[in-house]
Design brief:
By secondary structure, the protein is of the alpha/beta class. It has a domain at 91-164 and 199-292 and 392-467: FAD/NAD(P)-binding domain (3-Layer(bba) Sandwich). Helix 2 (106-121) runs parallel beside helix 4. The longest helix is centred in the C-terminal third of the chain and has 20 residues, at 423-442. It starts with a strand and ends in a 14-residue tail after the last strand. The model is unreliable at 5-90 (pLDDT under 50).
Length: 630
């Protein structure tokens, strides 16, 4: 029987004012509402309420920040809600908007901004709400990131004047690593970054949220959308946030608050890769019928402060080869940011076969390579994190529209894998969905109809189409994959008359332990390489110790009856945060212990578990990592 035990507690600094929507100045309301009905004014957000009495007025350490945050946030909602927006029931409150967006990432915020732009241009009233499960916008955003500005130029042409630009890309290198050497390779055309910027996507997302608020969007961080709501006809009518103050045993604690129903005429899901609500609507509406399965990779990242003498602003290095074997797809990135900072990371495709492989440990081995270690020696790690990303490309994009809403951004999967970019395509998908939704609402239809056709006619579809065969070609191994990539890039230029399908779903790729070779990883040196818990402490990750575990086992007996004897406990290795570990229980038997407190919200467990017995669900709002520079 698995136990749920979160023993590793990290106590971040908590400031209530940082987790609430900033006050905005709204233009005078337009003369009429979108469909001619009596106009519902957008909510004018007042200044932040005073901090709760159990916290000092400045940022201070608190053993349990979430109750204070919830009280402050609910107080803000009560102060700003108009009677026409408030429909109280004995169970839970309800808020009503024209458009509800789940996820304040690049796709969700771009969609929100575009909706408000269209409303202003048409002199219409349109209420848009964005929900974000992180304590503040950007806190759950992790990416490389070399930013391609194409979509941002379309959305906000003057963005360079105020956005956190980072540093402009200066030069690209692509290398093949052996255990102790590196060999330069030609940089593929998709990986050339002239005109792009090395940024922190977490910082850029926070800036984008500010632009959304200035445009009239209501952004609510700290609210985890946990449930889809449906009308009697089966169409989506909105989402509900999870209940707050539920103990591990399921009982209601003193600070219990029921969730809130947030109803929208149209709902856009922008949860990122492997979203829990996305999975629900894909199943309910059959969005994957006739489509290939999605494939994923796990990306691990650190941001270092290095010796200024070693820093080369704008330098970009990607590698393949070591420490991966020739059958496992993966590689590294190393980006020289501003202020003598370096973003370094390693990406491992989750269709790897060996259950003894640990993506975290492979990242440590990469950092110890002779071509990498000298850069990091004498430096300091500022932040660590991990997140899964979509790799399926064009073949794995599901049907994008459903009754009452649509999938946008990485919830659908628009990452251009050969280019190692997905932010620009995510943004553009959100913008296209916004345009389709606005046109439908003007015509009185609560729908995103036409969004998928707009996407197919856009540069997003063209860009993904020409690279569609590159990533699936690596299912045959590294060397055949490189040969196929060269063919597609330099000979057919993406116009091959065939389309390569993906192999097995990631969880089915795992071999039984008896068929795999054990991997002995070196001990960390504490200078360049580290153990998981040391790294985890640099992510700011925190959850309430006494909250209902958000990592759900469909069958509690599977870990001990299947995963342990057949695969030798793979969940203890594929997780980059030591959430899952087997400990000795009574009579010397080993049992799975779930350290939910450690969860980075990477979703690797939901994807890679061989029996698909682990289901990742959203925890209480505000929990998880606290990324600031990733």
């Amino acid at each position: 029987m698995a136990t749920q035990q979160p023993p590793h507690h990290f106590d971040p600094i908590f400031c209530p004012s940082q987790h609430l929507t900033s006050p905005v100045t709204r233009p005078p309301p337009p003369s009429r509402c979108l469909t001619g009905r009596p106009r519902c004014h957008n909510l004018a957000l007042p200044a932040h309420p005073s901090p709760p009495s159990d916290l000092p007025p400045n940022c201070s350490r608190s053993p349990d920040p979430r109750p204070a945050m919830l009280r402050a946030t609910r107080h803000l909602l009560r102060r700003t809600r108009l009677p026409s927006r408030r429909l109280c029931t004995p169970a839970r409150e309800q808020l009503s908007y024209d458009v509800v967006i789940v996820g304040a990432g690049p796709a969700g915020l771009s969609a929100a901004i575009r909706l408000r732009q269209l409303a202003d241009q048409a002199d219409e009233d349109l209420s848009v709400c964005v929900l974000e499960k992180a304590a503040e916008v950007g806190a759950h955003v992790l990416s490389g990131n070399v930013f391609e500005p194409r979509a941002m130029d379309e959305l906000l042409p003057q963005w360079r004047k105020s956005a956190p630009l980072g540093v402009q890309a200066a030069n690209d290198r692509f290398v093949f690593l052996t255990e102790d050497r590196q060999f330069p390779l030609p940089t593929p055309p998709q990986m050339k970054n002239h005109g792009n910027y090395i940024i922190s996507l977490s910082e850029m997302t926070r800036w984008l949220a500010e632009q959304a608020e200035e445009a009239g969007v209501e952004v609510y961080p700290g609210f985890s959308a946990s449930e889809m709501l449906y009308k009697e006809d089966g169409s989506v009518r909105g989402v509900a946030t999870n209940d707050f103050g539920i103990a591990k045993d399921g009982s209601k604690k003193e600070n219990y608050q029921p969730g809130i129903e947030i109803v929208g005429r149209v709902s856009l899901l922008a949860e990122g890769a492997r979203g829990s609500l996305t999975k629900a609507v894909e199943s309910r509406f059959g969005l994957r019928e006739g489509k290939q399965h999605q494939t994923y990779a796990l990306g691990l990242k650190e941001v270092w402060q290095v010796d200024p003498a070693k820093h080369e602003p704008g330098k970009i290095v990607h590698s393949i080869g070591y420490p991966m074997d020739l059958q496992t797809y993966g590689g590294s990135f190393l980006y020289h940011m501003t202020e003598s900072r370096v973003a370094i990371g390693f990406v491992v495709a989750l269709d790897y076969e060996n259950p003894y492989l640990s993506p975290f440990q492979e990242f440590q081995r990469y950092k110890a390579h002779p071509s990498v270690r000298p850069l990091l020696e004498g430096g300091e790690v500022l932040q660590y994190g991990a997140r899964t990303l979509n790799e399926g490309g064009l073949q794995s994009i599901p049907k994008l529209e459903f009754e009452g809403g649509a999938l946008i951004g990485c919830a659908a999967g628009f990452v251009n894998v050969p280019k190692i970019k997905g932010t620009h395509t995510a943004q553009k998908s959100g913008m296209l969905a916004a345009e389709a939704v606005f046109e439908n609402l003007k015509e009185g239809r609560d729908s995103a109809q036409g969004y998928e056709e707009r996407l197919r006619q856009s540069w997003v579809w063209d860009e993904l189409s020409v690279v569609r065969n590159i990533r699936p070609g690596f299912k045959y191994g590294l060397l055949p994959g490189l040969a196929n990539a060269a063919l597609e890039s330099y000979v057919t230029r993406g116009r091959s008359p065939w389309t390569i399908s993906h192999g097995h779903p990631d969880h089915l790729a795992t071999k039984p332990a008896r068929e795999a070779k054990q991997i002995e990883y070196p001990k960390p040196d504490g200078k360049v390489t580290f153990d998981i818990l040391t790294s985890l402490s640099l992510s700011g990750t925190d959850h309430d110790h006494d909250e209902r575990c958000h990592l759900v086992l469909k069958d509690d007996s599977v870990p001990e009856k299947l995963n342990l004897p057949l695969y030798d406990a793979p969940e203890s290795r594929f997780c980059p945060a030591k959430v899952y570990e087997y400990v000795e229980k009574e009579a010397g038997k080993m049992a799975l212990q779930i350290n939910a407190q450690n969860c980075l919200h990477c979703k690797a467990c939901d994807i890679k578990d061989p029996s698909q017995n682990i289901e990742w669900t959203v925890p209480q709002g505000g929990g998880g990592p606290k990324y600031t520079v990733t």
